[in-house]
Design goal:
alpha+beta; 5-stranded mixed sheet; 15 strands; about 35% helix
Length: about 425
């Protein structure tokens, strides 16, 4: 059991996919009546200065060294004239302003002892639905790929050297270009006996995920001179796997490739259709709706149109895609609530025309697209607009550290106009 003097709340957020572990966040909660902002802080930017007794700070530091993740939540009452009992009369959204800080990172990456009577919380670490969903997403992706950097794998130097090839932005394309799938198919099975079956299956699928994206990127670059359309229906959005679109480095490399090829071209169209996890939008968890909205925001900055579309009544977990430039349909995987299967292993019954028909039908059932605003999304999701509002810069010491596998979606925090159109006006390859 955790030290109750340090942990006030333990929050378990469902992973929303049975193949991934739930996300547990442990919090110590502080409150203050008045905020003190300082422009010069140990973190280099504008911060909230929260006074803390030195012995309490030392105690928190010792607890953080135990290896248990610990988050700090700072609560500031919105209306200081309200008595505590009156807070029950207003909605949870209206009671407090919240900020968050990863104390493990704060203690390990700052010179906190030089100012050991205060904790400094970056101004942009404001907690609302939008930033909490990002915290969930970052932890989800970091935990999902943790098996690729675990102690068992580090004991195998050859495998430790192989895996980074598939996650590096350039080496992944070069390696695939030279040897194709064989780089993975021939070398990875050698290590099967080194792991228990579930662990090897996880390592194999996660590495294959990056390798598959590398294959697609290689083909796109080869056909770049004549590639005029990329359209995908993305079943990842049905589950917690939607977080891969935000924090997975290999997914970002894939999407950046789409943007690079089409940037500045009027004859190119890039589109991703993300189905809602439930047929009724009111049944979709708010944390998932915020995540899907963030995917739309990130990738429209990379010149790709993203649409949130109605969940189809059949084949919802199947992959459907269409690529121009002679690529055609690139089979990917199918997803269900508790597993993922490679299409290459189970076979695909979809013809190219089936893909286009399916994609065109889903596009007509759109809830939100690149032309919609934050206010539109809040109205569709039935939540206060401020709960979707993002800070002006990326939070600091809130998400797990970036790595070969995890990349922050910094594009979210670039100032954007209310409406931001992508290149191309009409989808290609329509029937």
């Amino acid at each position: 059991m955790p030290d109750t003097q340090k942990v006030d709340f333990r929050i378990t957020v469902p992973s929303l996919w049975k193949n991934s572990e739930n996300i547990t966040l442990e919090w110590q909660v502080k409150s203050t009546a008045r905020l003190e902002f300082v422009d010069k802080s140990p973190l280099g930017g504008r911060c909230i200065k929260l006074g803390v007794k030195r012995r309490d700070l030392e105690s928190l530091f010792e607890f953080s060294r135990s290896g248990s993740p610990l988050m700090l939540a700072l609560a500031v009452q919105r209306d200081r004239s309200q008595r505590p009992n009156d807070l029950l009369m207003v909605s949870p959204f209206e009671r407090f302003h919240w900020w968050g800080l990863d104390l493990n990172q704060y203690f390990s990456r700052t010179d906190w002892r030089s100012r050991a009577e205060a904790i400094y919380i970056p101004e942009q670490n404001r907690l609302n639905l939008a930033t909490f969903s990002l915290l969930w997403g970052a932890r989800w992706v970091a935990d999902y790929f943790s098996s690729l950097s675990g102690p068992e794998l580090l004991m195998l130097p050859e495998l430790s050297r192989l895996i980074p090839h598939f996650f590096h932005p350039q080496r992944s394309v070069d390696a695939i270009g030279e040897r194709g799938w064989s780089l993975l198919e021939q070398r990875l099975p050698r290590f099967r006996r080194e792991f228990d079956p579930p662990t090897f299956s996880k390592i194999s699928f996660q590495t294959g995920l990056a390798a598959g994206l590398g294959v697609i990127r290689h083909r796109m670059y080869e056909a770049a001179h004549c590639l005029d359309v990329v359209r995908n229906y993305c079943p990842e959005s049905l589950f917690g796997t939607a977080n891969l679109w935000l924090f997975s480095s290999c997914y970002h490399h894939f999407m950046r490739t789409s943007g690079e090829i089409g940037n500045g071209r009027d004859d190119y169209f890039s589109q991703r259709l993300l189905p809602l996890p439930s047929e009724d939008i009111r049944d979709v968890p708010l944390i998932m709706l915020a995540t899907l909205w963030h995917v739309l925001l990130v990738y429209r900055t990379l010149h790709t149109e993203v649409r949130l579309v109605q969940r189809p009544s059949s084949h919802a977990g199947d992959d459907f895609s269409y690529y121009g430039g002679g690529i055609g349909y690139f089979p990917w995987f199918t997803l269900s609530g508790d597993r993922a299967d490679w299409v290459i292993e189970i076979g695909s019954t979809h013809a190219l025309a089936d893909n286009l028909d399916f994609i065109n039908a889903r596009e007509r059932e759109s809830w939100l697209d690149a032309n919609h605003t934050e206010a539109d999304a809040a109205r569709v999701f039935h939540i206060p607009r401020e709960q979707l509002r993002l800070p002006g810069s990326c939070p600091q010491f809130m998400f797990p550290r970036e790595s070969l596998f995890v990349r922050y979606p910094r594009e979210l925090f670039i100032a954007q106009p209310d409406r931001l159109l992508v290149h191309g006006t009409h989808p290609k390859g329509t029937s």
